[in-house]
Amino acid sequence: MKTYGSATVVNGVSLDVLDGRTTMLVGPNGSGKTTSMEILVGLRRPTSGKARILGEEVVPSGKHRIVTGVQLQQSGLPGRIKVKEVLGSVASLFEEPDDIWELAGSLGLQAHWNKAVDKLSGGLKRRVDIAAACVGRPRFLLLDEPTSGVDPEGRAELWEFLRTRARAGCGILASTHDLEEAEAFADQLYVMGKGRILLHGTPHEVLSSAGGDWRLRINDASPAQIRVIEESGFEHGRIGITSLVIGTSDGLERLRQELVQVDSGPEIRSGRIRLEDVFAVTSWREI
Ligand SMILES: Nc1ncnc2c1ncn2[C@@H]1O[C@H](COP(=O)(O)OP(=O)(O)OP(=O)(O)O)[C@@H](O)[C@H]1O
Asked: Which residues form the signal peptide (predicted)?
């Protein structure tokens, strides 16, 4: 648990990060992702409770730091240091560092080897932070929004790089706001809300928790359509002016036809259930 004054910002959070797996933490702004991850690696003290890495309790400046690679949301690198100097100086801290030139190659940084960090784009800076976190061949990698500021193509490359490290035995815990990448690249997911873990499992398990594999989204449904939805027996709720209905593809196709008959105006989108729908279901079930 972590409290600031009378505010409890993390409560009863237990995160298991498995060797060889990519574990992702998703949730709205302020849900406690960064706080939980920083407690896990000893950067913040919990008000109560304990964090362990490889069975050892995490204490500030403890032994866990040798096996842990960390990339934080705010890069702490001085702007005028060059990429090669960042990686070289981190490498000098370890007995058997990774090959930093190869690492730079895997992360698309060789072309920027001699550039100062403050001359790099936001996405490239993020890659330098990730490379620095990987130099010590960590057993455990903690990444706070590793793909923020990275373009879509770069995101996929970055996740492939990280998944390769995971396959080599590293345990990875990463937070993200990109629900598509969480669905696509996570081996297991934790969904956080208001400082608690709301859901946990493989992306498939988390998606299944919404109660159906298909969804309808109706933009600004008319009162007559809302009555049809309410009488349909399907789980449903509202997100702003959008009505969301969860069910099976056959059942929701029948409902879609009924809704069009009642009123052909409002736009209806149907498709496979996505994490954004699970978020919505979770929030209305909580109320
Ligand atoms: N030093 C602090 N003092 C007081 N409150 C804090 C402090 N650090 C974080 N908080 C509060 O703790 C809550 C959780 O913040 P946290 O940064 O862990 O959320 P998050 O899920 O990582 O958010 P984001 O997605 O925006 O990064 C927020 O309400 C935040 O305002």
From this structure: none
Q: β-strands 22-26, 52-53: how paired?
A: unpaired
Which alpha helices (DSSP H) does 121-265 contain, by range? 122-134, 152-167, 179-185, 203-208, 223-231, 249-262
> Which atom of ligand 1 is the closest one to the Cα of 192?
21
Q: Is ligand 1 within 6 A of the CB of residue 32?
A: yes
Q: Considering only CA atoms, which residue is closest to atom 1 of ligand 1?
A: 4
Q: Report d(CA 201, CA 205) in Å as an integer.
A: 5
Nearest CA to ligand 1 atom 5: 4
29 within ligand 1 shell (Cβ under 6 A): yes
For the chain, domain boundaries: 2-207, 210-286
* Residues facing residue 82 across a β-bridge: 116
Q: Which CATH class is domain 2-207?
A: alpha beta
Q: Name the CATH architecture for the domain at 210-286.
A: 2-Layer Sandwich (3.30)
193 lines ligand 1 (CB under 6 A): no
pTM, to two decimals: 0.91
User: pLDDT of 233-261, one tens digit each?
Assistant: 999 999 899 999 999 999 999 999 999 99
Residue of 15, 25, 31 to mutate, ligand 1, most atoms within 8 A of C-beta: 31
Task: Say how many Å lie between the first and final Cα of the chain, rounded.
Answer: 23
